[in-house]
Design goal:
37% of the residues lie in helices and 17% in strands. The protein is an alpha/beta fold and 347 residues long. The chain folds into 2 domains: 2-163 and 331-344, Glycogen Phosphorylase B (Rossmann fold); 178-327, Glycogen Phosphorylase B (Rossmann fold, 3-Layer(aba) Sandwich). The strands form 2 sheets. Strands 1, 2, 3, 4, 5, 6, 7 and 8 form an 8-stranded mixed beta sheet that branches. Strand 7 (134-137), helix 5 and strand 8 form a beta-alpha-beta unit. Helix 6 (191-199) crosses helix 10 and helix 8 packs across helix 11 (313-327). The protein is globular. 41% of the residues are buried.
């Protein structure tokens, strides 16, 4: 038996939950001679996998307590099968597991997160990694970071790239004077500098910021640009709403200071939008020559790159074409096949 920790189905769909959902929708009901079983706590499911895979609801707890107590009890009663943990810490003392870890921002920048979150992750993630049979991450940048930070063997760590959802595509809508950014509202995403750079640009464009705050992250203020009528906060949008705004935007900007992968620019590229993004961490690995880069720590660099691209229609056209080509490097089918091959390997 292969058990999937499906607690992610009880959580709001953000980056890591999307990875879990997309891959799990494509997993077969059986891999080799082992049946694939999904288990989740007895709390309302926000998402469904949309196929014939049943979700087994177990235990009496919820949240981290369910993951550290109820889930291991279930596993022990079922002969300690392989566990796949897509999101979060995973049962820290359970050893027959494959654990996904998407970046080490909690380790390198604890100030970006709530005190309780970063303390919990910095205490428990190293234990869970040590007790994992294999570790899967989303870029070679993160793989190298895990090796350097926690001294794990390279052979234990596998890279499986995410991909954009097929919900995002070019609808051939008329582009409007919109500069778009999509991310959670948190310090790492660097939205304050984007707003400050935008406020220095004299144009008819609007800056549309899609995303919401999350209690996981530290409290901070976006005090710049709130009084600018051309800076628009939409809050959280559904995928259907997001697809439309991707297709209306002329330019997508992603100024993140730290990423394990960074899916939103891929979604924008799949929607036919030109992208300018940060040159930090994993992003050059993922986007290669398909975008224009800027220094995310420099307001002036962000401003200059926005103005440079918006003033050059041929460059926008070229970036759109390169974006489509880049998107084709990634697919959830390929990612799922890689996970199945890892599961088929002998321990």
């Amino acid at each position: 038996m292969i058990v999937i920790n499906a607690r992610f189905l009880t959580q709001k769909l953000t980056g890591v939950q999307r990875v879990a959902v997309e891959i799990c929708q494509r997993l077969p009901n059986q891999i080799g001679e082992r049946k694939v079983v999904f288990v989740a706590p007895k709390t309302p499911l926000i998402h469904q996998l949309g196929n014939d895979q049943n979700i087994l609801l177990i235990g009496f707890s919820k949240g981290q307590l369910w993951e550290q107590v109820d889930l291991p009890i279930f596993l022990n009663k079922n002969n300690n099968p392989t566990l796949i943990n897509f999101v979060g810490i995973a049962p820290i003392f359970y050893k027959n597991k494959i654990m996904f870890l998407y970046d080490l921002s909690f380790k390198h920048y604890p100030e970006w997160f709530s005190y309780s979150f970063q303390k919990l992750y910095n205490l428990l993630i190293p234990i869970s990694l040590k007790n994992s049979r294999k570790i899967i991450t989303d870029s070679y940048y993160v793989k190298d970071d895990i090796i350097e930070t926690y001294h794990h063997e390279a052979s234990k760590i596998h890279v499986i790239y995410p991909a954009p959802s097929k919900k995002f595509s070019n609808l051939n809508l008329k582009r409007e004077k919109i500069i778009l950014t999509v991310s959670s509202i948190e310090p790492r995403k660097n939205i304050s500098r984007v707003i400050k750079a935008f406020n220095k640009i004299k144009s008819e464009y609007k800056l549309v910021i899609v995303g919401a705050k999350n209690k996981t992250f530290s409290i901070f203020s976006l005090d710049q640009g709130i009084n600018n009528d051309n800076v628009i906060f939409t809050g959280y949008l559904t995928d259907e709403e997001l697809t439309v705004i991707y297709n209306k935007a002329e330019l997508f900007i992603y100024a993140s200071l730290f990423e394990g992968f960074g899916i939103p620019p891929l979604e924008a590229q799949a929607s036919g939008c030109a992208c300018v993004i940060s040159n930090a961490t994993s992003l050059p690995e993922v986007y290669e020559n398909s975008v224009e880069y800027f220094n995310p720590s420099s307001i002036e660099s962000i401003r200059a790159k926005i103005e440079e691209v918006l003033s050059d229609k041929e460059k926008i056209k070229k970036l759109k074409a390169l974006g489509v080509k880049n998107v084709n490097r990634f697919s959830w089918e390929r990612s799922t096949e890689m996970l199945i091959k890892i599961l088929e390997q002998k321990p």
